Amino acid sequence: MTIEEQTIRRELEASEAAKTAADKARGPRSVVLRRRKSDWSDEPRDPAEDAVWEAQREVIKAASETVALHQQDHDVVALCDGIGERLELGERERACLLAAARVHDIGRVTMPTEVLEKTGPLSSADWSLMCQHTVIGERILRSVPEMIGVARIVRSSHERFDGRGYPDGLRGMQVPLCSRILLCAEAYCAMQGERPWRPARSAEEALEEISAHAGSQFDPSVVAALQIVVAEHRGPLRRRFSRR
Question: Which pTM was predicted?
Answer without folding.
Answer: 0.82
